[in-house]
Amino acid sequence: MDSAALRSNARKYLGPHFTTKNAWWSDDLPVFVRGSGCYLYDSDGNRLLDGLAGLFSVNIGHGRTDIVAAASKQMELLPYATNWGTAHAPAIEAATLLAELTPGELNTTFFVNSGSEAIETAVKFARQYHRSQGQPERYKVISRESAYHGTTFGALSVNGVAKLREPFEPLLQGFRHVQNTLGYTGDCGPAAELDCVRAIEQAILEEGPELVAAVVAEPVQNAGGVLVPPDGYWRELRRICDKYGILLVADEVINGFGRLGRWFGSELVGGEPDMMTVAKGITSSYSPLGGLVVRESLVGELFESPQAGTFTHGATWGGHPVSTATAVANLTALRDEKVVDNAATMGRRLQEGLAQLAQSHRCVLEVRGTGMLYAVELTANSASGRELTADESKRVLQEVLPAAYRRTGVMLRADDRRGTNISISPPLVLDEEALTHLLDGVDGMLADIEAAIPA
């Protein structure tokens, strides 16, 4: 099927995700047919650098035949088995490997199918855990503004991106969103005195500490422009949650498996959580898989409780044999090939390159990030302080950047969930050649923006 036929059938038969009609019906709609390393190849024969690693997820890079072979072998050996009253080898192996990689006492994994499901599972575990401990009144959840935590109904209730929640309101009750860490970086003074920390405790007090089940946050918040927390922030979250008997959940769906130059974001920011949600990089998106990793002691308390005796949750494909076999192959490759170390090293090079571009382009307000996760926040003129108007922002996001992706051969993502940002998150196997291509592409995109938007 040629490109024209593929695009025509996409319009007729394929429902898009988070894509406008104009973009979906465009004759320039990218249709990808192959991937290799850091690169994607479309149906028109173009090669594009995958500067977003799919959706922050193809950590090991595209086209790994060893991972494909592991999935194929498992399909032949045992294509399906359940974790409902039975178990199977690949899920056990994946959970064991995760326990070796995750920090501290985070040793027990409940497998699901996606990041959204992992967040749903965290909320359910928190509520049932408190009920099992004689506190059934604890049901509320605190999360942060602009933070993305998924799209299913429960996850959307945790989600702090207002415009994603509004089309489906009223959502679930008992969810509150508070100030994030925007504007706070590095050493801002004692963390306990920062407004972004006080906002968490104030919300708990206003909601009633005895009613709050969990606090959910990404170690480094992606949505809204990659918000790296100030020093001590997560240790303060840990202290506050301990003070009021609340479970702390780290959403590692994007942060995890090397994205920040460490295996997990929790290791970078400190303050070990009670639960950790994972997905995306667990299989490098070669197969759908998510999970909730929980402190072993909490699982024991839940299972030993007369009120519970089990975690009342499950899914037909949770811990699917093919997906967990894929996870084992992927995680083994990430570990043995020291891909996380490469992410740290090349991430520093990426940060240096983006900082240099910020100095030479008036449209860059700020570059934020760490490891292999960055955002370039855009403005009209950083020197004069003129911001993009709403119309200019829309033009940049919907016209200038999509055309620039094609012209530069670099696929990135425009993010308008707070401000106007370019998201950058390449595969963790990025090498010098791909890094140069990526930075040249960003340079070209910024030049295109400045040509289109007056100072």
UniProtKB/TrEMBL annotation:
<keyword id="KW-0808">Transferase</keyword>
<keyword id="KW-0663">Pyridoxal phosphate</keyword>
<comment type="similarity">
    <text>Belongs to the class-III pyridoxal-phosphate-dependent aminotransferase family.</text>
</comment>
<dbReference type="InterPro" id="IPR049704">
    <property type="entry name" value="Aminotrans_3_PPA_site"/>
</dbReference>
<protein>
    <submittedName>
        <fullName>Adenosylmethionine-8-amino-7-oxononanoate aminotransferase</fullName>
    </submittedName>
</protein>
<dbReference type="GO" id="GO:0008483">
    <property type="term" value="F:transaminase activity"/>
</dbReference>
<dbReference type="InterPro" id="IPR015421">
    <property type="entry name" value="PyrdxlP-dep_Trfase_major"/>
</dbReference>
<keyword id="KW-0032">Aminotransferase</keyword>
<dbReference type="InterPro" id="IPR015424">
    <property type="entry name" value="PyrdxlP-dep_Trfase"/>
</dbReference>
<dbReference type="InterPro" id="IPR005814">
    <property type="entry name" value="Aminotrans_3"/>
</dbReference>
<dbReference type="Pfam" id="PF00202">
    <property type="entry name" value="Aminotran_3"/>
</dbReference>
<dbReference type="InterPro" id="IPR015422">
    <property type="entry name" value="PyrdxlP-dep_Trfase_small"/>
</dbReference>
<dbReference type="GO" id="GO:0030170">
    <property type="term" value="F:pyridoxal phosphate binding"/>
</dbReference>
